[in-house]
Write a structure and sequence with these properties.
globular, Rossmann fold, alpha/beta, 23% strand
Length: 276
């Protein structure tokens, strides 16, 4: 029996089912990850550096295959896709890398036009109009002629954001999009992520350890530690989480499951040794 298109549209845009991954068999990075990302949502994947967030993002984009389990993205199991099918799937995605990753030998205009020329087969007149439209959306139409070296860090990140939405993606992936930004640029990027997601009718996944700022823009959170999802819920539920590590991380407490003191002998024993 053929499935109704309406039911198909109601399926999560990303489904991760019992996924584990390790670069080496004896060193697992992800352990038994389950998550579902609904269409139209802005979802945060949060946690301490090194907990497996970026690895999970690479599995979602099809750059890595799970060691065990299944990743379904845009209705397809990524492990079953050949090179051409994977390429076609990625064409429906936008990606904002941690530091923007702009082409330094291209102008702002050419950076945003690049994916349109690579994937679209569009006439130059239409590319021009679309580039200006994307730059207008991030407030940088007047900077089209500049090079990345002439931009501030916040402006460069906005250009990278314009490039990531060049092909009107269904799914936008953000890898630590707030790193190194001043407070003004930070606020601008947060607002743009929400506005562009909603105006494009897209779905966004934000990988970040900047918890407080991200909690103000996401609809739902998966909180990771040591390669596992240890908490999930709305921003309000994450802020109120009884999980000790989440509570410490969200509230910036200096001591807790991540101790203030590095393991050491009793203080008195060290003093006695020093006086011996």
């Amino acid at each position: 029996m053929q499935q109704s298109p309406v039911l198909e549209l109601q399926k999560p845009i990303v489904e991760i089912r019992n996924v584990s991954f390790g670069y080496e068999a004896a060193r697992p990075v992800l352990r038994d990850i389950d998550l579902a990302i609904e269409r139209g949502a802005v979802v945060g994947i949060m946690g301490q550096s090194g907990c497996g967030k970026t690895t999970l993002l690479r599995i979602i984009m099809g750059a890595l295959a799970p060691t065990r389990g299944e990743a379904r993205v845009l209705g397809r199991a990524t492990g079953e896709l050949d090179r051409d099918a994977l390429y076609a799937m990625r064409r429906k995605m936008g990606m904002l890398f941690q530091f923007g990753a702009l082409f330094t030998d291209m102008s702002v205009y050419e950076n945003v036009a690049f994916p349109m020329r690579e994937h679209g087969g569009l006439p130059e007149e239409l590319i021009h109009d679309l580039v200006m439209l994307k730059l207008q959306a991030v407030g940088l139409r007047g900077a089209a002629h500049l090079t990345p070296t002439e931009l501030s860090g916040g402006m460069a990140r906005r250009v990278a954001l314009a490039r990531s939405i060049a092909l009107d993606p269904q799914l936008i992936l953000y890898d630590e999009p707030f790193t190194g930004l001043d407070p003004i640029s930070f606020g601008v990027i947060v607002r743009l992520i929400r506005e562009l997601n909603d105006s494009l009718g897209a779905t966004s996944v934000i990988v970040t350890h900047d918890v407080q700022e991200a909690l103000g823009v996401v609809d739902y959170v998966y909180f990771m530690a040591a390669g596992r999802v240890i908490a999930k819920g709305t921003p309000e539920e994450i802020r109120a989480s009884p999980e000790p590590f989440v509570n410490q991380f969200v509230n910036g407490k200096p001591d807790g499951p991540v101790p203030f003191h590095y393991p050491a002998p009793e203080y008195g024993a060290d003093l006695e040794l020093a006086g011996a």
